[in-house]
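Researcher: Please predict.
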Amino acid sequence: MGLARLSALVLLSIIVTACGGGGGGSSDDAPAGGSSSSSSGSGSTSSSSGSGSSSSGSSSGSASDAPVATILFPWKVSRTEDGSILVRGVARDTDGVRSVKVNGVAATLKANTSPKTVHSSAVSSFQSTSSMQASDSNEVEWEVNLPLAEVASTILVVSTEDNSGNVNDEAGVAEVIQRKVPTLFALDTDRRLMVGQVEGDQLIRYGLDDNSYSPIDVPYLGTCDALTFLSSEDQVVCGQVRGSWLTLSSISLETGVKSQLEILNLDFDSAEWLFVHLNKIEITEDETSLYLLLKYFSAEDYSQNKSVIVRYDFASESFITIVDGQAADKQRLASDDMTLSHDGLLVFSEFWGGWDDSLRKLAVDGSVISDVAPSSSLFLAGIAVDSASTTAFMVGYDGIVKADLESGTVSTLSLETEEPIFNINQIRSVGLDEANNRLLIADSDFDYVLAVNTQTGARSEFAGNGVGSGKRLSTPRGIALDESAGKAYLLEDAYNGGYLFEVDLENGNRRVLSKFDFNCHQISEEVVRDQARNRLYAVYANDIFSVNPEDGTWTRLVGGNAPGADCEVNLFAFTGATLDTESNRLLVTDAYANGVLTVDLATGAVDTLLQSAEELPTPVDVALDSERGALYILDQEVGDLFHYDLESRSLTSMLGGCRNAPISQGIAPDHSTAQDLLLDRSSGSLWVVSDNLARADLAGDVCTAESRQVPHGVFNLDVTSEGQLLGTFFNELKQLDFESGNYVIISK
């Protein structure tokens, strides 16, 4: 929501071939990090109403009499970017709960004082673990923080014991995915390796044929701008430009030791050039030289940017400039990528973004540039060449082509408009794996390495760090849950079309339920689920669609412009919505109307419910509290939360008397962006989303609401019947733990 902010048992079949991985382990002596290989556990998982909580019943001893446990965080299958994981949940037993352990580590227990706590959020404080006996309580809340080993994934196994000694060794199971994907990589096709970098001070090694995976810690490495293999030394070369200094380092793949090869002062005029970036490193076949492609960014005009190519000679430990903006024949060099062939350097004719993406060849001595293949007009950005230097492959944002280097003919392998699942959003690295007839493309936005068959153009995934399968999420904002079906519905922004996704909450798998017919960009605001009518309402800034969740068919309920005229001046500026079931209508905030509109679900007729340009200059969301006969309205521009009495039609600020309270500061327009409201009827809480996340108890003083910074950001929220918060953000659906500030990704 918001005007673009105006502006069973989990399948234990993950085969991990990481170094040091292996061993199942749900017993007390299991390592704290858990198992990183497959397990043949005999239990079965039961999920509560399709939510991410999991429990199972199988073990030694009297398991049927042992405490039942539910994992509330993390989700049953999730991904974390952290080196540890918070695991929390509830356990119950008629004989009292003596202990709860996760992978053998004792959890902290707290007696549950309220019977409905299975559906509440995590408690804010816990007692000490080992000394506590919960014999007087049939239900406890528990949590433990576990360190995670550097493996591809970890299985979390919960064991429980009651006061009579009954034990369940597999009371709950969840999987945490940790596999990282290098979006900057280099290939060693002889030894069948991909080595790349995800973050500073670590490299990741992948097997091209066996899917092996192992991180390599490299102290003081920093972020590499470009990589290449030095195969004869079992090393990779890392190139970095910091300020005016170009540094080349070698890293041993066996030990992770970094050694400096050479450092060069580029000594550029800062009045003429803003900065320099190292785009590519290519190594000669005999491994005697490196070619480095540098891009100089003009301080005056982008059109004056230039490409510079230097050669580094290993024997003499010296740099030689081959091209400085133009070849010796005076032809300009302006390319963001290059690759080394037998008789030259293949480059593009223009920097990326220009109309001409034809392929050219620069002589290795920098003397001449010659034409090789014509423009494809596909916004090509990456080049790879086969070992015989007869075929070049070029990767772009609109398609992938290959060029015959002898004839200069170009043929299309794959077009982006024809690919439903494996899409490209930000090209980072390109490499050719001839043994498997595939082109490997790293996308740093979608965080995966795409494989493209060099004969057929068929696309697949080589390596990914997401959760679930299906088309990648880009900018999902709206979210609605159907717990009974175990589904989440996510509404994406519309770039020449908008998508409504259906996400399987069991495994994170995604499918496109609907695609809407926009001609230009519209921001998604909300997806509202109408259980009684079995409809979904997809709310965009200027349109509202009524969608059948069974087959994805839709009708336009409200259209701000005539069909095909989306790019004209909009009639509406919808920003948020909620369902008024009793009145058979949607309540929609609209920034143009400075208030709340009603939309009749039968006719699509739009009417004004309330309007206040002074108090609601930019309303971004609305929540209906039918029990109290009230609306809650969030305004972005004034940074306030309002109460609207539906009977008296009075509008009142809920934060007027507490401008210095955390909830007020969290939505203050000078340093935050208010964007979403969520009413949790089961707990009587109102969630307020901005750069912060606040939880207000509607039965208490809203000014005392807790407010915390949102971890990594969130657009919109929904909540399960067990109090689990799910939210959307760029490329992902996540679960958030409010008390700890932790989050995990559950679909990406």
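Model: The longest strand covers residues 167-177.
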